[in-house]
Amino acid sequence: MRYLIFLLLLCFLYSCANYREMRSITRDFPREYNGIDTLIRIDGYYFGLCDDYLCRPFIITDRNEFKGRLGKYYSHNQIVAGFHEFYSKMRTGNYNVVNDTITVNTVAQYGPWSFDILKYVFVIHNSTTLERIYSSNVRNDTIVNKDRIMFLFYPFDADWLK
């Protein structure tokens, strides 16, 4: 019985620390103007070119906010419909910019108290093209060279999202 109580207490303490880190990435970060709109377009969304479909669309704001979604899409209408339907459930996070590199920190939720911290690094090719060159997570910190993905910009009126 003591062993079970100790195990539950340990899980609870780990979950609380994990939850605090998750909150700092998704909610408790400075939402200040950062000038990203001078480097890339932000009046729409970016989508990945994956095999024969569109993938991993995300929105990035000039206030350090990132909203992204996993999935396969075969048209921009499907992406927009997904944004409308799932915007509140999209993966959220923050990012910082150094020269031509954008580093995103976001969270994947696996259950009520189970989160994984994700990191993506994008290189800016031009104002409408980004390349994801690095992807990692806390559970399996690896460089994903085989998964280098080009992300293109698609104009989209996102005012309803604010």
Q: What's the number of helices?
A: 2
Poorly predicted residue ranges: none
Please tell me the total number of domains: 1
The top level CATH class name? Mainly Beta
Q: Roughly how many Å apart are the termini?
A: 50 Å
SSE order in H/E notation?
HEEEEHEEEEE
Helix content bin: 10-25%
User: Helix- and strand-based class?
Assistant: alpha+beta
Enumerate the strands of the largest sheet in spatial order, edge to edge or round the barrel: 1-2-3-5-6-7-8-9
CATH architecture: Beta Barrel
What is the average per-residue confidence, as pLDDT, rounded to a whole number?
80
The multimeric state of the shown protein is single chain
The shape, in one word, is globular
Please provide the count of β strands.
9
Outline of the structure:
With 162 residues, the protein is of the alpha+beta class. The protein has helices at residues 2-26, 76-86; strands at residues 44-50, 53-60, 65-68, 72-73, 91-98, 101-111, 114-126, 129-137, 149-155.
Task: Explain what you see.
- By secondary structure, the chain is an alpha+beta fold.
- It has one domain: Beta Barrel (Lipocalin).
- It has 2 helices and 9 strands.
- The chain has an 8-stranded antiparallel beta barrel.
